[in-house]
Design a protein that fits this description.
Blueprint: E1 8-15, E2 26-35, E3 38-46, H1 55-61, H2 65-68, H3 74-85, E4 89-92, H4 95-108, E5 111-112, E6 119-121, H5 122-129, H6 138-145, H7 155-172, H8 181-188, E7 204-205
Parallel strand pairs: 1-4, 4-6, 5-7
Antiparallel strand pairs: 1-2, 2-3
Helix pairs in contact: 3-4, 5-7, 6-7
């Protein structure tokens, strides 16, 4: 399948830190379903991490305790997110980071991301197509490609930036012998981590 003809879901998470196995949790998740370069649906939610937010994380993403204390927990939000994705290819920047949090939170809720759902990393694509860039930060790539940048380090805003970046990278793809969905996954896909499903819960595949 030509990748220009496929639906894909761009997503981003904001977290309390760097490692879910060390106790860090998702505090915001956003996504956009894209078809032929146009956003056709959006998803966004704060997530109650059920743990205090550290000062460093609050400074980075400007998400406060008041913003998440009344939000639903990940066990409610993540299944809704997966329903929104509908089994489509997932796309994120530095996708290994985002997908490890998604997979961990799903495992805690007794669920698992289906093995057949591919995950693409735009950082990998950028490194291949734009090797001259001195930084692979999302905002730096956006500026280099002429994509508008407003707020950063907030899930919905970063998703909007990434949608713009994907359009530019897809336009460059044929010059790098990338023409099909299979080409994209083979060269720029990331593995989904396997976490033990939380005991006492029923496994369901999304």
């Amino acid at each position: 399948m030509n990748f220009l003809d496929m639906d894909y879901v761009v997503f981003d998470v904001e977290t309390t830190g760097l490692s879910p196995v060390d106790g860090d949790r998702i505090i915001e998740i956003a996504a956009a379903r894209v078809r032929r370069g146009e956003v056709i649906a959006r998803f966004a939610s704060f997530v109650n991490p059920r743990r205090p937010l550290n000062a460093e994380a609050q400074k980075l993403n400007q998400i406060t305790e008041d913003m998440v204390c009344g939000a639903p927990p990940a066990s409610e939000v993540l299944p809704l997110f997966m329903e929104f994705t509908g089994g489509s290819c997932l796309v994120a920047h530095n996708a290994a980071f985002d997908i490890k949090f998604v997979c961990y939170e799903l495992a805690q809720a007794g669920r698992k991301l289906h093995d057949g759902i591919p995950v693409l990393d735009t950082m990998k694509i950028s490194k291949s197509f734009l090797p001259h860039l001195t930084s692979q930060r999302l905002s730096y790539i956006a500026h280099s490609l002429g994509v508008s940048v407003g707020t950063t380090h907030r899930a919905a805003a970063d998703v909007d930036i990434l949608v713009g970046i994907m359009g530019r990278l897809f336009a460059l793809a044929p010059d790098y012998n990338v023409r099909t969905f299979r080409d994209l996954i083979a060269r720029f896909g990331v593995e989904k981590p396997g976490y033990k499903i939380h005991e006492g819960t029923q496994l369901s595949f999304l």
